[in-house]
Write a sequence for this structure.
């Protein structure tokens, strides 16, 4: 009897660009069950290929685009897809989540995932449909901006494209689908190194969910739940992620002047409220999303996507700029040139401080904004000494010109806008994240340390366990195909509606002390054989969509398996304890003068984290951890095909 894949297509497409051949990549039912989809499935696939350190811009790098089982089911916020590869910025595994239409189109073309190996000799457009794979010369698209390429290709397909930055191998170049970015880690440069200007996907295949009736009921309830929740039903639609900026200021979490402070005097003019009052035309969002957190603003008479909170902070407070109109314009320029907003902004701030300290004459100065647009363009085209040097990111600059203690990156990836001396759990997350200084891979613990809940941001109690729990949850939800904002509804609404009530204050006070219990559940998630649909509807939706047995424990175990698998691959690529390290500015210098608690106690937190993760003192997985997640058999296996 044929396998019923439910919402999966059951097929993975592998394209070998060097040979211009394509084939179906074998993926077993067991793989789908253990690795689900998205970034975790991508890590499972990459594990077959990445057996030793490689040149990320060489032929041996492998690009994996993957969807989740819920992609295409119409579940709320389920159109997200993932792109993974070895990052040119960090030399380690990177995965980037994107809300454009390409993932859904890939599934409609009949594939759960796409693997691209090898390298082309000419600039290419690859067309994927449910009946053919076509390779087209793309010289006529050379140097086109990301919007222009998509328009030039036209038609009904969805596209994943790069801009000039990707073609010029800027190490933090991104890929764009519609106006959404697969932003972090240099996915665009990997595409550029393979000479892929664009991939298009189109098809009409619709997968029948395992239990359609049940899934339809879940979808309705889930949508209502998101619409009623104060974060996903009110705050995000009204202000977008920018809503967080004012709270970041109040809690000293707004990275200011290259993370030398957590508050910025001019924050009001770059806040979410200012964006909503002066510039917002309307809100919108990714396909099938009831939250609609994206902003639509105007640049040069054109309606374009507005900035997220991270870029508002990093191109605002962090470079001492209080002009929101400029940030909106730069954000648009970066998307069009195809460059990660966070890494570009972090590299600019570092170059400003190098200049201020007389270590490198970059011509960039805190508070001076008239040369930012020009610098962004120079980076995208690697123009001149400044553009070329900055195109390799802040760690490369640091190696040339010094400034290690104020080079605000981890493992080569620039930090997001959350100043972690005001939220030490976030600091821990930044330091141990698999892709580097990323807020999402950190578990986004800052949300419970002051940007939603208010558990003590300076205590180390419970932070390792809470970080792990949120990292695992994010991995799993992303693997299912959902937007991470759907996890906000995990927290009961009253905690946000009545933050000062006795119960809310009690929850905030008690949470850090639940660490030992959370630790047991993290280590042995398989014991949580429950479903709590009003908190985590993802489990019941995945079960109805695929027929795979799913409960909270299974889902969290998949998340933990994914995080550990990425770590295992990164260990193979050279990561040790020495790489799980924040810049000294955050661990040696107090944010508040005289307050020793206002810095990240890295050593203590890292030790607790390794123990709670089941890692050894050097940051590798111990035998029990590998065996428990079924990763022992995957360590250092060679390519299947
Ligand atoms: S919440 Fe925002 S980012 Fe997430 S799917 Fe919806 S619109 Fe996209």
């Amino acid at each position: 009897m044929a396998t019923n894949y439910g919402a999966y297509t059951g097929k993975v497409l592998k394209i070998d660009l060097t040979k211009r051949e394509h084939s179906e990549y074998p993926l077993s039912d067991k793989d789908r069950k253990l690795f689900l989809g998205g970034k975790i499935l991508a890590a499972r696939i990459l594990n077959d290929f990445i057996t030793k350190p490689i040149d990320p811009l060489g032929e041996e790098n492998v690009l994996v685009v993957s969807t989740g089982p819920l992609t295409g089911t119409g579940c709320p916020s389920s159109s997200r897809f993932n792109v993974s590869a070895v990052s040119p910025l960090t030399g380690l595994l990177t995965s980037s989540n994107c809300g454009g239409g390409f993932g859904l189109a890939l599934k409609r073309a009949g594939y759960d995932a796409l693997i691209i190996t090898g390298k082309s000799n000419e600039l290419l457009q690859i067309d994927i449909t449910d009946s053919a794979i076509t390779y087209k010369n793309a010289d006529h698209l050379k140097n086109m901006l990301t919007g222009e390429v998509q328009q030039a290709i036209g038609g009904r397909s969805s596209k994943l494209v790069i801009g000039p930055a990707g073609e010029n191998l800027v190490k933090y170049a991104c890929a764009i689908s519609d106006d959404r970015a697969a932003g972090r880690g240099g996915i665009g440069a990997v595409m550029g190194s393979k000479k892929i200007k664009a991939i298009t996907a189109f098809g009409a295949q619709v997968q029948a969910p395992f239990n359609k009736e049940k899934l339809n009921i879940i979808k309705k309830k889930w949508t209502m739940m998101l619409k009623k929740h104060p974060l996903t039903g009110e705050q995000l639609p009204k202000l977008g992620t920018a809503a967080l900026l004012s709270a970041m200021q109040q809690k000293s979490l707004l990275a200011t002047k290259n993370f030398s402070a957590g508050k910025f005097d001019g924050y009001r003019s770059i806040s979410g409220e200012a964006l909503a009052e002066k510039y917002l035309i309307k809100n919108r969002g990714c396909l099938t999303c009831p939250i609609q957190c994206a902003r639509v603003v105007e640049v040069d008479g054109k309606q374009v996507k507005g900035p997220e909170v991270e870029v508002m902070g990093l191109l605002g407070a962090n470079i001492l700029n209080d002009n929101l109109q400029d940030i909106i314009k730069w954000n648009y320029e970066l998307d069009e040139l195809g460059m990660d907003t966070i890494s570009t902004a972090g590299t600019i701030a570092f170059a400003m401080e190098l200049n201020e300290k007389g270590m490198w004459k970059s011509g960039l100065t805190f508070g001076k904004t008239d040369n930012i647009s020009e610098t962004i363009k120079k980076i995208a085209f690697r123009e001149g000494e400044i553009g070329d040097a900055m195109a390799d990111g802040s760690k490369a600059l640091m190696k040339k010109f010094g400034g290690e203690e104020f080079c605000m990156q981890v493992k080569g990836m620039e930090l997001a806008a959350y100043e972690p001396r005001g939220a030490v759990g976030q600091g821990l997350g930044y330091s141990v994240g698999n892709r580097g200084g990323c807020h999402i891979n950190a578990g986004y613990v800052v949300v419970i340390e002051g940007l939603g809940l208010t558990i003590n941001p300076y205590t180390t109690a419970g932070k390792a366990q809470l970080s792990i729990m949120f990292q695992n949850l994010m991995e799993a939800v992303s693997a299912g195909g959902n937007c991470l904002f759907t996890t906000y509804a995990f927290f009961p609404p009253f905690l946000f509606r009545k933050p000062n009530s006795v119960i809310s204050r009690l929850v905030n006070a008690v949470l850090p002390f639940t660490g030992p219990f959370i630790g047991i559940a993290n280590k042995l998630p398989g014991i949580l054989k429950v479903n709590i649909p009003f908190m985590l509807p993802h489990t019941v939706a995945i079960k109805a969509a695929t027929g795979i047995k799913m409960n909270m424990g299974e889902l969290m175990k998949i998340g933990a398996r994914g995080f550990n698998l990425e770590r295992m691959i990164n260990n193979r690529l050279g990561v040790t304890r020495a790489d799980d390290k924040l810049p000294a500015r955050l661990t040696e210098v107090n944010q508040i003068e005289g307050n020793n608690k206002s810095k990240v106690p890295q050593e203590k937190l890292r030790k607790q984290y390794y123990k709670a993760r089941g890692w050894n003192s050097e940051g590798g997985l111990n035998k029990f951890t590998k065996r428990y997640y079924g990763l022992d058999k995957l360590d250092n296996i060679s390519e299947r095909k």
In short: The first strand starts at residue 12 and ends at 16. The radius of gyration is 23 Å. The chain has three domains: 12-202, 216-404, 420-639.
